[in-house]
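Hello,

Following up on my earlier ticket. Below are the three sequence lines again, exactly as submitted.
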Amino acid sequence: MDATTPDPKPLLACRELRKSFGPIEVLHGVDLDLRSGEVHAIIGENGAGKSTLMKCLSGYEAPSGGEILLDGRPTRFAGSGPAESAGVVLIHQELALVDDLDAAANIFLGREPTTRFGLLDRRRMDREARALLDQLETRVDLHVPVRQLAVSQRQMIEIAKAVARDARVLFMDEPTDVLTGTETEVLFALIRRLREAGVAIAYVSHKLDEIERIADRVTVLRDGNHVATKAVTDTDAPEMARLMVGRELTDLYPDKRPAPDAPERLRVRNLTVPGYAEGVSFELRAGEVLGFAGLVGAGRTETFEGLLGLRPARGEVFVNGAPVRIRRHEDAHRHGLAYLTEDRKGKGLIQSMPLTPNLTLQALRRFARPLIDRRAERAALREAIETYDIRTGRVEARATELSGGNQQKLVVAKILLDEPRIVILDEPTRGIDVGTKREMYFLIRDLAASGLAVVVISSELQEVIGLAHRVVVMRSGRVTGILEEHELTEHEIVQYATGLKNRGVEPHEHAA
Amino acid sequence: MKRISILLAFLLASAFAWAQDDVVTIGVSIPAATHGWTGGVNWWADKAMNDIQERHPNVRFVINTAGSATEQANDLQDMVAIDQIDALVILPFESDPLTEPVAQVKEAGVLVTVVDRGLIDPTIQDIYVAGNNPEMGRVSCEYIADRLGGEGNIVVLRGIPTVIDNERVEGCMEVLDATNIEVLASEYANWNRDDGFEVMQDFLARFDQIDAVWAQDDDIAVGVIAALEQANRQDEMFIVGGAGMKEMIARVMEGDDLIPVNVLYPPAMIATAMEVTALYYVSDVPVLGEYILGATLITEENAEQYYFPDAAF
Amino acid sequence: MSTPPDAAAVPWTRRIPWQTLTPLLGLFVLVVIGAMLSDSFLSASNVTNVLTRSAFIGIIAVGTTFVIIAGGIDLSVGSMAAFVAGSMILGMNWMLGLGLAEGVVLALGIVLAVVLGLAAGSFNGFTITRGKIEPFIVTLGALGIFRSLVTYLADGGTISLDFAMRGLIRPLFYGSFLGVPWPLWIFGAVAVIGSIVLHRTRFGRYVFAIGSNEDVARYSAIPVRRIKTLTYIIQGLCVAIAVIIYVPRLGSASGSTGVLWELEAIAAVIIGGTALKGGSGHVWGTIVGAVLLSTIGNVLNLTDVISNYLNQAVQGVIIILAVLLQRGRGR
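Thanks for your patience. The regenerated structure is below:
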């Protein structure tokens, strides 16, 4: 544990940092030091306290105990404002931009340059915003509201905003989650430049391969405790995973069951979602896991939102061989289709509501006779907590109090509660830790084994390959290929995803 | 009243002599019918328009109703610009805010007749037709004082806080101050039936001995009657309303003990104003000046001549 | 007073949300002040008067609670009440003219009011959900439409119920059962049913979900548009019920009937602890809010401590204090 020995001059450090929410302590005395010119990864399972630690260090939360040292001197940040003035800046995971302002206005929000007359110096804002975004190779119209921009562009603006504050210590929370591969490379280049300029960068991520590439040191947290701090060169991904989970992680993916020769559950023909997807056709069997791969923006989410009545679409859909019309999401629900949204915070859970009504919302019919049976609801929650290993301080908690991975488990429990026959899981492991990921993979395997038809949309090729029997690859709103068995390699999928290979829109037929 | 009758006679006589082809446009601007009395104003304005236009085909009326003072001011501009009115008959929503807009109409060469609520600058108007608010309060309370023999307890239900309401209450108080009558309480009932009911319910809960109620307005009086009937105390006191609602006049006519009298403040004054204004164009009679309608006390004896069963009010 | 029937075997302590207690505390303070200022305040007749009075706004506000929790707003209820009342009276007068028996006329009049209330609510609901127009704008338009319609129906004057009907209809407002006036029974019934529907049925849960996060509701296969439309229809029904006890009181309706009732109903809902932005709230708070509003007016009428000219200022201050009290508790 040599690496934990205090550096002669850490820019920002904490000693014995504690944080409680009400009666529950979530950080039990954590030490950390961030040195000038290093990238310091912070990893841990969901709920390990990474986000809380960062928020304490950047002034968003007041610690309950311990001390924070800035340039070696004890400091208390009265809020994120004073922290930013001291050069300590957090880049938010949940995009914290003002939707209706444009990129330049967002980047300079709260510290707008003014002219001699006290008016906004728009020209200077534009010039500097442009320069910052150029570094990030992000070409956006500086004068459109950011709500009209893509998620990855907004993430880049968020990063530019932090850099514009001349940060000395920069906290990044899962910055690459919504970025494409190229964008990630651009970000890494920027991080390296910042490091050379002497900035201390704390980098929170679940992607251990990224950490191996970019980080100098890594600190592992588990259940609110500091487990280890190591130089990245002294460790590797399997060890990091083991430290996070606290036990040996055997195979991440379950053994694949053979592709079933079961009856067809879902057949989609020439599904067109105006503006997003065209002529999508595929079929899905009971017990099958069908992967959907493609680059960000390939139209996979929109295809399924169209299929499920969540946005306008046309095309033919057959459930169990019979043609169905799905005009509203309720229709899809009635036909036994369930959808796990990729946006669990905005569309999956009502953050302000307790866990119980969130769990039963989609399957409420089962609890109303005709008055809602609250006892049965509570029993269902207890069962879900048990089945899906949802970790919550108390059962009366609101959804917002759960960590990301536990929220995801709750949403999964919610959509499975009504016993659907076809489930569509959109990025089921986005933003969750490796241990929870593994649980999710086993769950998906079990669902399929029990006869459900499963679609997994994922941007992680490993995941798709590890789970799916067949993989539909999409590019620019069209199906470029449906791959199976021996074709399921990263190399092959990437060729279809990038358009190097194309089998046209015709669905791949099974041998009859 | 006499003077008006004479004028009307002239008007009728001159109708036969009228032979010109020029069409005279008279704009009429009144508040929207949000209350019984203004409803009456609307009804009488419509009736007068039809009557006068029938008698004088070359007089044309344009009636606009407004929901607020601002709206009324806008109506005035439209009347001048679009309808090109020759004369304006206006019952101003409020005195202050409409003085300037009416002055501008006047500057455009329009004959101005003001009804009921005077403008701040009386030199603007050519003709002024109005009820007499202080007189109405005085007549009402003189009756109450006489009937109670100069002593007793009364409650007062006021209208909406406005100049009209203040003038009426002041007129009343001048009379009562000289007597031993005590005003137990006064509250605003907003010239509204529901408020009249609720305020009177509360007065009844609060006071055991009430000899008379000055409700000032017949809409309020309707609510007061219902509250008295609910508490079964309608035999203890009498009510003096005002404005001449037909149902109230009918009760006076029938000799109802609860509603022995009514004090006239007729919405028909708008019709009078329209007649007088038309007269300016269809006859040579000098009509300019002020016409203050008396606040006539309607009793069982004279009620019949003020009863218009077809009127809206 | 009366305990509403307990529909399910859940203890009362669980069924009354704790937030109800803060508006109740505000009401209690007001009652203490009222009792100190006036001897007649706590008299049986005055208490009955105040509660009965609050029934109109209270019943309407139960509907408003649904609309607001679902994230909507309805500004048209006052005008709608005037329109339904006017139409009900005209309808009954017309049926009497046809020679129908008074009992039949009364029954049909009530049916007419309910049908019109449902129709008016449907108009608002469908225009908002099908036309995709902000509820503020739709109901502001409806406010004007209903208000004009009643003025038109009344020829600018007052619509009065035929005297032949008065004897039969009066007891609906003035009569009582087991010593409690009918309007209070009806008010209580609406409150109990409203509370059960809002807090104990699927529909009620969906109302909360939509008001909290419409996207989540949509992605959870909830028929969002249908539920929203239904909240406005419930509002229309509540207006109709309020009208059925309003008409017997004075037997008349005019352009000035129900002016500003929409604001009073919204105020009752907010005082009762429902969030104006939707997603949280409860019917019992609304009931307390409605009683609190009519108590303010009553206390002011019973005392001369405060100048008449300041009545509305006092009302405003008390409303703000009541909400402040409640927000203060919720940290």
